[in-house]
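Kindly review these tokens for lecture notes.

. . .
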Amino acid sequence: MAEHHDTSPAELGAPMDYKEHESTYSLFITLSKWGVISCLALVAAMAFGFFAGGFFSAIVLFIVICLAAWFLL
């Protein structure tokens, strides 16, 4: 016999995989947070490198900011 699959839309009560939904949302929030932190660290390092006049010091500052965010968050 043919199997019965629930093809009704979610609005009508189709089963949802809430565990998978929550893990995907958690990953999205984590990636968004680290994307914003890395962009802000990059802008700060670029400004520091421009005004202080050093490429190496800007790279060091970028790494320091990212590590500080890692330990603080």
The CA atoms of residues 38 and 66 lie 7 Å apart. Helices lie at 18-52, 55-72. Residues 32-73 form one domain.
